[in-house]
């Protein structure tokens, strides 16, 4: 059993890592989906109220609220899978929650890329306003860093610098799943 968590700023490549996992038949638990579900439960639009609800959940249920809500989903997948990916940790508190639950079987991967590269990727993606507006992106990053994302990134077990081609990145991710974190850590000094 292994649980692989991802952390990284918007546009770094966490979603692509999750997509490669899905293509390999590895279940992915997306922490943002927990927030989107809560937005809908409160009658709010996830596209416009995601950040507000993420903050509200943490205030109402504790800083590890999204991780706590994700744990049962991860555990369900582990009943029938050797590897599960948890997409999108946002804080060191969430990291602690997963490490407490899974011990040495939890591996955190920090996906990193320069701001300009990430901004360009997000502009191409154009999923929401903060993807296409540089100032909105900076505010979004500031909010996520305020949650403790920088501390979680600093404590990652593996760092993947996603600055090459998409094919190179996908090959690195595939190696992570097939050969384990050590193979990727060695390839990304």
Automatic annotation (TrEMBL):
It comes from the Archaea. Coiled coil: none annotated. Pfam families: AAA_17. One of its GO terms (molecular function) is kinase activity. Keywords: Kinase, Transferase. The keyword Oxidoreductase does not apply. This is Adenylate kinase.
């Amino acid at each position: 059993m292994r649980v692989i968590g991802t952390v990284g700023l918007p546009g770094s490549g966490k979603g692509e890592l999750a997509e490669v996992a899905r293509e390999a038949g590895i279940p992915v638990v997306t922490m943002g989906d927990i927030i989107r579900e809560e937005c809908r439960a409160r009658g709010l639009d996830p596209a416009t109220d995601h950040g507000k609800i993420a903050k509200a959940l943490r205030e109402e249920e504790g800083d590890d609220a999204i991780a706590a809500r994700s744990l049962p989903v991860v555990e369900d997948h582990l009943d029938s899978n050797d590897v599960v990916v948890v997409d999108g940790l946002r804080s060191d508190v969430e990291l602690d929650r997963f490490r407490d639950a899974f011990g040495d079987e939890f591996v955190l991967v920090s996906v990193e890329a320069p701001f300009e590269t990430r901004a360009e990727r997000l502009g191409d993606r154009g999923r929401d306003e903060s993807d296409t507006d540089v100032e909105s992106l900076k505010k979004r990053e500031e909010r996520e860093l305020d949650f403790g994302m920088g501390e979680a990134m600093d404590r990652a077990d593996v760092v993947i610098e996603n600055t090459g081609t998409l094919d190179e990145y996908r090959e690195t991710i595939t190696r992570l799943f097939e050969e384990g974190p050590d193979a990727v850590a060695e390839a990304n000094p």
